[in-house]
Design a protein that fits this description.
single chain, mainly alpha, Mitochondrial carrier fold, two-stranded antiparallel ribbon, 10 helices, 2 strands
């Protein structure tokens, strides 16, 4: 793959990432709210995804569903750019110059896992800021939780109070989620990776900065508090988001690549 063609793959991925946030962020906000507040005790803060969505719309309007979106735009755009670019380049490297009309799992799985592992380094800080912004706002109790005035304020305060280590809180869990999730992508993604996504949200939004960063210990704590169902908190909005968000990403990636003149095998 030439340098020019590789640059086009990264550009196509960047556009796909922006499109994904526009379509998927409201679902993600609901998912994060459910994961952050419905895994603490047996008593749920929100009865279901619809009640959570209604609460956000009633107290904050549509803007509330896009809370933390600016951080998500930056993170997702660069994540998608790197993911699709690295995936395409690694796949090309592993399968060689010989064209293949059939998917090769021994090429696809390591290519996607490698891309997911690399992007987790960028995605973790962006998602930490996004999640902390998303859990703010008026809750069902009527109280206003607003520690940060915006994404940049959140990032700066996190760095000031927790240091560089703080901005990468949940990094190991993000790496696991992204490498496993991207390796399985459209098939078993939601059911194999969602528990890690729940753990990541709990780790990144925990008020106690000294709390565990071990995803498996976090999952054990969730299990003790709310049982097995806690592992799949936010499954509803995740599944609803999956089709439009992933379809938007893939279609936008393919169309942008085609417009840029990228040649597919």
């Amino acid at each position: 793959m030439s340098a020019g063609e590789a640059a086009k793959e990264y550009a196509a991925g960047f556009v796909a990432g922006v499109a994904t946030v526009i379509v998927g962020h409201p679902f993600d906000t609901v998912k994060v709210k459910l994961q952050a507040y419905n895994t603490n005790t047996q008593v749920k803060e929100y009865k279901n995804a619809w009640q959570c969505t209604s609460q956000i719309l009633r107290t904050e309007g549509v803007r509330g569903l896009y809370r933390g979106a600016s951080s998500s735009f930056i993170g997702m755009a660069f994540e998608s750019s790197l993911l699709f670019g690295l995936y395409s380049q690694t796949k090309k490297f592993l399968q060689g110059e010989a064209p293949s009309s059939h998917p090769q799992l021994q090429v696809i799985i390591p290519s996607a896992a490698y891309g997911g592992a690399i992007i987790s380094l960028i995605l973790c800080p962006a998602e930490l800021v996004k999640c902390r912004m998303q859990v703010q706002g008026k809750e069902s109790s009527g109280s206003m939780y607003a520690r940060y005035s915006g994404p940049s304020d959140c990032a700066l305060k996190t760095l000031k109070s927790e240091g560089l280590k703080g901005i990468f809180r949940g990094g190991y869990t993000t790496l696991l989620r992204e490498s496993i999730g991207n390796a399985t992508f459209f098939t078993t993604y939601e059911f194999t990776v969602l528990p890690l996504d729940v753990a990541k949200t709990v780790i990144q939004t925990a008020p106690d900065t000294s709390s565990s960063r071990n995803p498996f210990q976090t999952l054990r704590s969730i299990y003790r508090r709310v049982g097995f169902r806690g592992f799949y908190t936010g499954l509803g909005p995740t599944l609803v988001r999956a089709f439009p968000a992933n379809a938007t990403a893939m279609v936008t990636w393919e169309l942008t690549a085609k417009l840029l003149g990228v040649q597919r095998p």
